[in-house]
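Hi everyone, sorry if this is the wrong subforum. Our group has a chain we'd like a structural model of before ordering constructs, and none of us has done structure prediction before. Sequence below.
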Amino acid sequence: MGRAACDGAPARSSFTLENGLVVELEQSPASKAWVRLEMPVGALDLPREQAHLVEHLVLDALAAGNGRIGARSLGAVTNAATKEHRTVFTAGGPPEETLRLAWLLRRGLSRADFDEDELAAGLEVLAREAEFRARNSATQYHAWAWNAVLRREYEADPIIRPLSAPQTTGEELRRIVRTRYGPEGSRLEVSSPYPPSRLKEPISAMFSDWRSESSVPPQMPVSLPGGTVRLCMEGLTGRSLVIVAASLNGSIPGREGEAIATVLTTSASERVSTAIEEDVSVEMVGVGFDDDSLAEPVWRFVATFGDDVEWKRLAHLADVIISASWAVDPDAVTQVAAETWFREAHATRCGPPPPRPDFDRIEHQPLPPPPKVHTLILVRGVDACSSTDS
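Answer:
Right subforum, don't worry. Here is the predicted structure as tokens:
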């Protein structure tokens, strides 16, 4: 955008990311910022009300954050709707939280880690709604549910009947979200007082690596001097891309003498350490930003090896990291990375930056203002982090 955007004139911008996500940015004088994500999967695309259940689970995580950062803690409101062939998630809140609201949508859909307690709560809600529908007319239910589901889906469609909670498992839902709820054919709409020129770069960086599992090959070989290590894209859902690279003789620029495993997910370093042989030292760190580039937080496992380590041992390290990434809830660490990312993302080149989010309102201890290039070190599982200069 040009001068008009910097001068505050209303503006619109529409573009499509490489992963197929259509992004629409609109400058609006409204007192609230709104982020809306529409996905091309709905009640008639999945059996046994599974789409409705996914809607509830994602919306609950978006609103409450499961004890972590959530829309409610930001003074925001959320809503969701399951239509015939689409699902819509909406979050609205203070304008200064625009990027944070977008991140919450991104995180809620990419975590795909519905535990048994969450699943039980979601099934209970659907059971209550089914009971309500059985006692009341479809018209009354339609009004009560805030247009959450099309009326005819509950009146006649054979896929939806019987009107009861679906019989499903957390693993089945995780598979559905990983494969069906992706960026392909989805549309992200952001309305805020900020001109699109101020938001395009951070929004693009936030969503550019989002993929559905079905759109990514299971693995891809990467050749390095002295050997080959797998670049694994198993189960890619935005947070679960696992990139494993290695070097015994400093062949990777900038990290000489180390073997680097870069992980776009969060796992507990202690789980990885206990699964690796004693002569391999593993440390989990999060990397900040180089130069002025913006990118989603990238987590790295930095493993230091001796000169006599065989390449097959490095492949074993890759397998351990991959398996550990699925075993640990990432949100606590993702929160820390997200806070740091938002601080960096507000350093725009178009006039004064938007007001910085009030991190003191979040339950977790906020990070100090980060330096231009910094490192976050995971100290204990997913509970503690500290910030140091690179």
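For your construct planning: Residues 1-8, 137-165, 215-390 have pLDDT under 50 and may be disordered. The CA atoms of residues 213 and 235 lie 5 Å apart.
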